[in-house]
Amino acid sequence: MSVHPHIKRVIFTDQQIKDRIIEVGKEITNDYKDSKELVLIGVLKGSFMYMADLVRAINLPNTHVSVDFMSISSYGHGTTSSGVVKINMDLKADIAGKDVIVVEDIIDTGLTLQSLLVNLQARNPASLQVSVLLRKKEALKVEVPCKYIGFDIPIVFIVGYGLDFAEKYRELPYLGELKEEAYKN
Ligand code: 5GP
Ligand code: MG
Ligand code: MG
């Protein structure tokens, strides 16, 4: 596998990511067997690859499974959380009375997810859970309920597999740590 020159090290290969998502998909399949309607809410843009792989790993033939997307901003072009969340694009459909899983790329401080969950809870879903691909456990500033976790990772800045730095590196099929010098260019 060729690695982008701005990547210091690959944290998870595309195969490791796929294998882990199969397991998470099985957990969700198991937990939502009795659900009538399950909505997966992808938080754009970072979650788009995770959403695509996760939804294919869920197998619920008796449930109406749908996907919807929201776009929120927290980081702008920096690498530290502002704690301020702005909704740039809202859901297309109403989630009242439906089972909802928020599909997020990464939790760092937890501030983004916390305010998003307050917003979604106010819309009265039947249930509300979170599936996050990556969690920086030591960086959490607030306690956020997060049921389905791909990987716990150390506090480093990650790009690839949908995650960006200043809109770059989303296309990389693996998750990697960005070289410090790449922040400055
Ligand atoms: P939090 O509010 O939890 O601190 O930040 C969550 C958001 O910050 C994520 O959804 C993501 O957009 C961004 N973020 C946090 N850590 C990283 C990281 O290591 N890499 C990238 N690309 N984005 C991150
Ligand atoms: Mg995100
Ligand atoms: Mg970003």
Automatic annotation (TrEMBL):
GO terms for molecular function: hypoxanthine phosphoribosyltransferase activity; magnesium ion binding; nucleotide binding. One of its GO terms (cellular component) is cytosol. Pathway: Purine metabolism; IMP biosynthesis via salvage pathway; IMP from hypoxanthine: step 1/1. Its EC number is 2.4.2.8. It is found in: Cytoplasm. Gene3D superfamilies: 3.40.50.2020. Belongs to the purine/pyrimidine phosphoribosyltransferase family. This is Hypoxanthine phosphoribosyltransferase. The gene is hprT.
